[in-house]
Amino acid sequence: SYYHPVITRINSNLFMVQAVGLDSAASGRIAARRQIGVITRLDQPAVNMQSAVTVRAGISISGSSQVSGRDSVPAGWGAHCNPPGPMQPGIRDSSGNVTTSGACSGASCITGSPKILIDTTIQTNTFTQFGSTTFAELAASADKIVSGTITGVGPTTNPGPPVSCRMSDLLNWGDPSNSLSPCFDYFPVIYAPGNLSISGGFGQGLLLVQGDLTVQGGFEFFGPVIVQGTVRSTGTGGHFFGGLMASNANLGVTLISGNSVVDYSSCAIDRALNGISRVKSLDEH
Questions:
Q1: pTM of the predicted model, to two decimals?
Q2: Is the pLDDT of residue 194 over 60?
Q3: End-to-end distance of the chain based on CA atoms, in angstroms?
């Protein structure tokens, strides 16, 4: 007896999974044959990022920072991305409390359509409810749980052959820098149950922070970043490819300064969300 599985991709989210089972008689003749199939889909969290930065209680931008709503494709990702979509707002805020200074005076460092969008529909649940999925559910599915101050985020591998991505490494958050790396398609969910400070390194996936997020040392992250508190990106600040959301839970103002960069990227968002999606049959509720 043996079976032969076949998986056929229908589109980016739908798959036909089929299996053919055969049972042979002693003579070698096929005595029984059965085929079953099911259509499945990737159940993707509906994290609908509509701007480079989304905040609820205001944001301050200074120094030589840059915030861009232009849909960007990360370097080396061209073969893995759809063509860029329309330009998004640089900043969405519920109150329009956006202050700019230094080289960013007059919002000169913000690119978007519009640069600043006042969106009164932004509420607390904008940062906690994503379609049928909640922030708490995403946090519960985390591959990595981190806290405090961390350094040295970067990809690591298991020796081969074949060489494989060492997913068990707490500080391995995938490899957005090398499409040939075994960690290029690894998009973990990273969750910080309190405040988190990151200095240097790079990664990708979905970053969730229950408290405040502080970034420095040129840390780079590709994918959605959702913070329930405030974000401070200072000095040689962070470079975020995808989208950044900060609820400012205690109504503190998020600060982007130094030479921090936030670039909207639908590809970085989609690849990360596809990477964390689970397979679900269409008749499963």
A1: 0.85
A2: yes
A3: 33
